[in-house]
Amino acid sequence: MAINEVLKALKGAFPTAQVVLPGTDAFTALNTSYLSKAQADLQPRAIFLPRDRDDVIKFIRVIGPYTLQGSVKFAVRGAGQQPALGCNNVDDGITVDLRNLTGILLKDNDATVSIGAGERWGEVYSKLQEKGLAVTGSRSGMGGIGGLALSGGLSFFSTREGFITDNVTNFEVVLASGEVINANANKNTDLFVSLRGGGNNFAIVTRYDMRTFKQGKFWGGAVFYFPNSFPSQVEAYVKELKDPEATNETHIMLGAGYSATFAQISEIMCMNQVYYTREVESPPILDPFVNMQPQLDHMRSVRMLDLVDAAKEQASQGSSTSRVSYINTTVKADVPTLMAAYETYVNALGPLKAIEGLTTSFTLQAYPKSLLAMTESAGGNSLGIDPLEGPLMSILLLSFWQNKEDDDKIHSTFKSVIEAVDQDAATRGTAVSYKYMNYAAPFQDPINSYGKESKAKLQATSKKYDPEGLFQKGVSGGWKLLG
Ligand SMILES: Cc1cc2nc3c(=O)[nH]c(=O)nc-3n(C[C@H](O)[C@H](O)[C@H](O)COP(=O)(O)OP(=O)(O)OC[C@H]3O[C@@H](n4cnc5c(N)ncnc54)[C@H](O)[C@@H]3O)c2cc1C
Description:
Elements: H1 2-13, E1 19-20, H2 25-31, E2 46-48, H3 53-68, E3 74-77, E4 94-97, E5 104-107, E6 112-116, H4 121-129, E7 133-134, H5 145-149, H6 158-161, E8 168-174, E9 180-184, H7 189-198, E10 204-211, E11 213-214, E12 218-225, H8 230-242, E13 250-259, E14 269-276, H9 287-290, E15 303-305, H10 307-315, E16 323-332, H11 335-348, E17 359-367, H12 369-377, E18 392-401, H13 407-428, E19 431-432, H14 446-449, H15 452-465, H16 470-473
Parallel strand pairs: 2-4, 3-4
Antiparallel strand pairs: 1-2, 5-6, 6-10, 7-11, 8-9, 8-10, 12-14, 12-15, 13-14, 13-17, 16-18, 16-19, 17-18
Helix pairs in contact: 1-3, 4-10, 7-15, 11-13
The structure holds flavin-adenine dinucleotide (FAD).
Flavin-adenine dinucleotide (FAD) binds at residues 35, 76-82, 87-88, 98, 117, 138-140, 143-148, 150, 153-155, 199-200, 204-205, 314-315, 317-318, 438, 477-478.
């Protein structure tokens, strides 16, 4: 079988420790180190650990011919924090785990930071913070760079600094041919724009260069409260987004959800995560989002933070001991649409509450006009969002649970909720096609959601840089361009 030949070739080409085989402790540790424990349902025939870019080149050259014959699949993994099953792991194939491609280097007089593809945001923040700098990256220090730098992404600073992907100034990649090229505003610009939203469709990225900016402490944290206040929170959020004078220093997420832990206090608990990204204590603009009553005072964490603290606090909400799913949609920032979406979500929860270990949430995160407007000056991306449609709202349904038997119930319930939300928004004239790849369920189609024009450009980029379709045929996980 071709996979056996690939394994033999990899074992011949690399030291034993880099080709980790099932049945070893090292394999078990790696294959169970994803955010969602469901990824470990997939059993690769080997996990390959490149030490550097040259190893990635060698790997692509070894596996390429077998993959192009259609018989051997591989997966590319950053930090493994995206839960969509199979987007970063593969059954019966080879998983390339980039964790050892480390390195964080300031350059261009500290205007840019070069980040190895195996880094996590927390490491990047620690290094930059020593110099009073930051980048726009995941709110969770545990998150890997690739999942967000290749898909869009919101950060603490995105109202002011734009999408995470729009802040990547250069991608160093290994193409299907094994050639290393850089994609930026001057070189291979079609690939540069395509990678900003195109996921794992074109190459293995080995390094990201990102724009840095000065950043001091900032104000923010979480507030827990009860659902009778949620409608007024949604109203305040939309009002703020639509205010032509709105500051670009706020970052607000409104969440409501169910967890057995809180069920004795309230069936639904709400949580706002709010930030004002300058060193200003209790900024009045955040008052509506932190002062609602009643609230759980003992859980309130709003305070002066630095980026490292803030990213640690968010990372503590991640778990690798549960099965995890994300599903999302986008609508216009419209109160009746958002409230209808919330009601649809809450009404669907009843039959799920008995599921062991269930924690689920409905989270609203804005794409403010200021963020959407920055894409063009940053050189463009492939998300296909018309900035004139803004402000927009991302609706994310996030779930954690324990057992595989409950997968179908969770997936089908939340698929129906998202479909109903989209249908309702369509009747109100507030529907938006865009689905965020990083929050997409495996059965969603973010690439199609970018629109025909953007998809056609992505396909043209694939034909140019990967003419034989290695990343289309070989990398089965993620969202492909040819469907
Ligand atoms: C507590 C918590 C907080 C979070 N905060 C945020 C947030 O602030 N903003 C936000 O937008 N999301 C956030 N997320 C979502 C999370 O960060 C992501 O799901 C993200 O995708 C993780 O990136 P990763 O590199 O670990 O991805 P992985 O799971 O390793 O990979 C994701 C996808 O990218 C591809 N990929 C990764 N690296 C490469 C590469 N080098 N070359 C080619 N393809 C590659 C993979 O093949 C895969 O398809 C959060 C999640 C949690 C649990």
